Amino acid sequence: MTRMIKRYSNRKLYDTTDSRYVTLQQIAGLIRNGDEIRVVDKTTQQDLTAATMAQIIFEEEKRGPRLSIEGLRRIIRSGLPTV
Fold this sequence. Notes:
Blueprint: E1 2-7, E2 13-15, E3 20-22, H1 24-32, E4 36-41, H2 49-63, H3 69-78
Parallel strand pairs: 1-4
Antiparallel strand pairs: 1-2, 2-3
């Protein structure tokens, strides 16, 4: 089952499974525990899952580097797939 997270215009994130607001850190914990998540904009229904995951990585890197510079280079060099 995929856990649905709705992002409101005020940037708050709402977990529809547990009926509560969650933080990026809590979403990271859900992912680490094996939960599948999908983040969508409440108004437009645009899928924001990838952007949210990238934001989680960014916030965690700000707290303390966990990824190597070379690992980050590989991610950037591999590019993002075009749709």
